[in-house]
Amino acid sequence: MKKMDRDGAFSTLVSAIAAHHGFVYSEAPDLTHDASAPRTRTSGVVYESPSGRLANTGTILQEAENRLRVLFIAGLDGDPNAYRDFLQALTRHLRGYLRRRIPQHRDDVEDLVQDILLAVHNARHTYRTDEPLTAWLHAIARYKLMDYFRSRARRESLNDPIDDYADLLAVSDDEPAQARRDIGKLLEDLPDKQRLPIVHMKLEGLSVMETARITGLSESAVKVGVHRGLKALAARLRGLR
Amino acid sequence: MKTDDLIGLLSNQVTRIDRGAVARRFARALLLGALGSVILMAIVYGVRPDLASIARTPVFWAKMAYPFVVAIGAFIAVTRLGRPGVRAGYAWALVGVPFVAVWLAGWLVLEGAAPAERLPIVLGQSWRTCPFNILLLSVPTFPAVFWAMKSLAPTRLRLVGAVAGLLASAIATVAYCLHCPEMSPAFWSVWYAIGMMLPAGIGAWLGPRLLRW
């Protein structure tokens, strides 16, 4: 039963990717990356639609997987444009995926999207290039969704149930919805060793070398500061739930 | 901050990832943890005096191989489970085989013994303390393993906590073999197994708290 749930959820994300990619992704911006495209995997068992409705679902999903993978792997090698394209595509899939998973809490969707983006970023070194990227992404999305359900259940067991009525009236339909927590504000609370590298490199777009010069930190301390700072941000987001 | 701004923040000046960082962290953690266990064993219990002669017997190496293979299996399992979407797979077999082998050997030993001798063989001289000695020797390895796990991204926290605890206790058990006087598989099959399971249980208990990310 549990396994079926997982597979069901998996095929939902996969079809979300297919639905978006089959059509939206024709604007694929960076053809130069195709030169480094990984060998096409032919084993594709996991991608097949369980019901077999569409004969070519497997191919579409395979293409979606391959496109995302090329962008993501280029991002792992330090290509910011490919990485941004990857995160944007992923964001579209995540919104669709989460809106279907938590239709009754649409206000939380954008917060969760941001949580998952940050989690994907912080865990990006754990992806092994011989594994399907979709499975890796789905495991992270699912983990964050379960974490959300757990903290929500805990919060609701403490709160007066009358809050549910308030929730009902508070539903808004903005697209894309606003995130309720502000990561920018959380950033201001980080210690300088983490905050300054993030502000200079990630917001102002300076290089590691320039950031090191301005802050007086070593280049490796700058990189470590960014890494630890983003992990600390994820932890603080968790604490707010 | 809007999601688009977050995407900008994450992708801006993104640096190439260091593919060897996780391996280096595990190497450092496991070596330091094992060293800590050996030192603790030498101080608290003392290396067995006849180690030089006993090290020439195959039984001694069979005893060392038991927790050592469990540690290899647990290591492969946690480093796989620490990556989202990856299953432990064949690592479970590597964890299970040493236990099964020792149980079979212990059963054969008891089969060949007279009924009145069987219980004393299983209890040995140190059954009361053995599991707790292993627990104590896990004190250096347990935080080392969990610190290394923080560089990965496990999604099944209780399971990974248990296997990480098993990895810590299996390394501690290898260190304990340099002290432990018991030479019967019938003894190891019960008391070593309990000793290794205690930290695994603690790991399962603490996993969701320590490994959440």
Order of secondary-structure elements of chain A:
HHHHHHHHHH
Contiguous runs where pLDDT drops below 50 for at least 5 residues of chain B: none
Strand proportion of chain B, as a percent range, falls in under 5%
Number of strands of chain B: 0
Tell me the number of structural domains of chain A: 2
Share of β-strand residues of chain A: under 5%
Give the CA-CA distance, first to last residue of chain A.
29 Å
Which structural class fits the helix and strand makeup of chain B? mainly alpha
- Largest sheet composition of chain A: none
Secondary-structure element string of chain B: HHHHHHHHH
Radius of gyration of chain A: 20 Å
Helix content of chain B: over 70%
Note poorly predicted spans of chain A. 1-7, 16-52, 168-174
Label the structural class of chain A.
Answer: mainly alpha
The average pLDDT value of chain A, as a whole number, equals 76
Tally of individual helices of chain B? 9
CA-atom Rg of chain B in angstroms: 20 Å
Transmembrane segments (chain B): 26-47, 59-78, 90-110, 130-147, 159-178, 190-211
Protein name (chain B): Anti-sigma F factor
Keywords (chain B): Membrane, Transmembrane, Transmembrane helix
Organism (chain B): Caballeronia zhejiangensis
